[in-house]
Amino acid sequence: MTAARVAVIGVGLIGGSLGLALKAAGVADVTGADSDRATLDEAVRRGAIDRGTTDPAAGAAGADIVFLCTPVLQIPGLVAQIAPRLKAGAIVTDAGSTKGYLGKAITRLLPAGVHYVGGHPMAGREKSGIAAADGNLFRGKRYIFTPGAATPPAAVEALAGLIRRAGARVTVMDVARHDDCAAVISHVPHVVAAGLVNLLDCYPDGEEDIAALAGGGFCDTTRIASSNADMWADICLTNPAAITAGLANLQGLLDGLAAAVRRGDRAAVRAFFAAAKKRRDGIIASLGPTGN
Asked: Which of 33, 148, 202, 282 makes the best surface tag, with the fewest CB within 10 Å?
């Protein structure tokens, strides 16, 4: 199918960037829906959407492809709102970071003849909102799709073709595998970054000195702690098994390091850092110049 009409619900960083990328790729008709009228006006001004509405159902009506780009826990409610207005043959996808929860929640809400394809762009930044949107955000990045067993291959290919036009590299994965991988490479690191910043609360007497001494290393390590709090709260609550398992494994590693430090075992401490360096250097080398 040709995506003559696209709807983007939630015109923030991801939705706005998607709109900019699709318009640059030649998609003729992009409607945006958002609860904030000022966001919609800015999205129109920037050329991310052709028109905006605060009514998600009106925005999705008649669209060939609907992108849901809000925090995860908002998505099922939005699907319930737009479902009666979706046309037969429409494709509904999302940009949520947890696919198992959304797959179960969305598919039971859609009418017959409307196809759901779970999606997750492996791209983002610590800033949020339409002001942070960038039409090149997805260029060279992986965009994951997690279709269900009943999803028509033609729907997956139509969506994949559109995303490739936006510059992304498409990968199709099993839902459970995606959520396990995302927990390790994205969800747990975000929790850890936030934890490192919140660790400063344990040292209130030294807060002024700590802030003065914080440099590039601290800022680089904790950059993602500036991400949207609502989004990350929803992610944690909708991928609990994989995230808590990852945190438990990390706790085990840290406990082992702490024990080695306490007993003065330099060889064990060095091995901890050497193993991390070797693994990270290998991963970075395998990603190539695009960083993916």
From this structure: 202
